Amino acid sequence: MMNPVSARLAAVLAALALSGGVATVTGAAQEQSLSDQGEARREAQAGTQLSLREIERRILPQMRGAEYLGPAYDSVARAYRLKFIREGRVTYIDVDARTGRVIGRSH
Asked: What is the distance, to the nearest Å, from the Cα of residue 34 to the centroid of all Cα atoms in its chain?
């Protein structure tokens, strides 16, 4: 079963493949990313979910020895995807923004 963040990424990639328009999908993805970031800030300020800093404070110590490459936020899934690399291997940690619980891990 695909987690919500992976499902959304798959949908974006499918749209890209069907449209043949890299610029259109890239622009839409960037616009959605900015919208998601704003949504994450609003939800954290409202107290309905944890801030990115709190999520990072909980997850980064679990990834000792890996370089943290940064976050992405999915407003539909209300989840953060944190990206790490260690020895040339990328790992994604998906975290429920409401609870801080790890909901997925992929390599």
From this structure: 12
Give the model confidence (pLDDT) of 52-78 as tens digits.
999 999 999 999 999 999 999 998 999
Residues 4 and 35: their CA atoms lie apart, in Å, by: 18
What's the domain count of the chain?
Answer: 1
CATH number at residue 74: 3.10.450
* Residue pLDDT, tens place only, 39-52: 888 887 887 899 99
Q: Considering the entire predicted model, what is its pTM?
A: 0.65
| Tokens 């990834």, residue located | 63
- Helices 22-46 and 4-19 pack at an angle, to 10 degrees, of 160
- Residue 31: which domain range? 4-106
